[in-house]
Design a protein that fits this description.
alpha/beta, single chain, 8-stranded mixed beta sheet, two-stranded antiparallel sheet, 8 helices
Length: 260
């Protein structure tokens, strides 16, 4: 896999075709099946591997991807340069694993607009679309329970989706954006007024066991974001925050994930 990744980087890591080919190649090598799911609002890219219909379904939700070129410039397409959640999913040895990309990553829908990787990253229609895709994946796998794992902005989506379901066994976030209003104030950038905020439904899912991993060297999603979410949930018993050494926002996690 390392050789493949280096090859694509050498060919131009920001080229959209290379980003898509990278995901297709590493998933195919790990026996994942590619499928696009058409929801009411978006067509979502998924990669799946179902082996045992008696086991829970573990769903990995991707981060914001290549949303911004720099602090002031939106990218033309949010398909990840470094698909962190996808790499997590292919290294997961569980029997039923699914990866769900965010809207407009890897493919486009008629409703795709750059607002969905800017101000409306966690909009109601985004959450509903991913929730719909997860219901379809659950039927395909015939699993009865679901574990949600979200990276960065995918952590926000995981929490928001969980608040709409009654079949979630566990939630895990990695560098999760669990309070985007506080996060944007911390970085002194405009708020995402078009997005739902996970902090507002923290109390609704406090009955679900949760683990929120925070990179000790993460300067993007800092620890106080997870702290604020735990405080808002008002249920310390079910919620753990775990600090991970030698992890920034995007680096260090892949090596550490198997140990975690």
């Amino acid at each position: 896999m390392i050789c493949i990744i280096l090859l694509f980087i050498g060919c131009g890591k920001y080229d959209l075709e290379n980003r898509i080919n990278l995901a297709n190649t590493i998933t195919k090598q790990n026996a994942f099946k590619k499928q696009d799911i058409q929801t009411d609002t978006f067509k979502l890219r998924t990669y799946v591997k179902f082996k045992d219909k008696t086991k829970p379904l573990k769903v990995y939700i991707e981060g914001d991807g290549f949303a911004w070129v720099d602090r002031y410039t939106l990218s033309a397409n949010p398909t990840p340069v470094n698909p962190v959640a996808l790499k997590f999913s292919i290294n997961d040895k569980s029997q039923n694993v699914a990866y769900v990309a965010r809207p407009c990553q890897y493919n486009t829908s008629k409703n795709c607009s750059d607002k969905y990787w800017a101000d409306k990253r966690f909009a109601k229609e985004v959450v509903e679309s991913i929730n719909q895709a997860i219901s379809i994946l659950k039927r395909q796998s015939k699993s009865k329970e679901i574990e949600l794992i979200g990276f960065s902005g995918g952590g926000a989506i995981a929490v928001l989706v969980a608040s709409k379901r009654d079949d979630i066994k566990k939630i895990t976030t990695i560098a999760g954006n669990l309070n985007h209003k506080l996060l944007h104030r911390h970085h002194n950038i405009p708020p995402m007024i078009g997005s739902l905020d996970p902090i507002e439904i923290a109390h609704k899912i406090s009955h679900i066991p949760q683990v929120h991993y925070v990179g000790k060297d993460d300067k993007v999603v800092v620890r106080k974001i997870a702290n604020s979410f735990k405080k808002a949930s008002k249920n310390d018993k079910n919620i753990k925050i775990i600090d991970i050494s030698n992890a920034t926002h995007t680096k260090g996690w892949e090596v550490l994930w198997n140990k975690i």
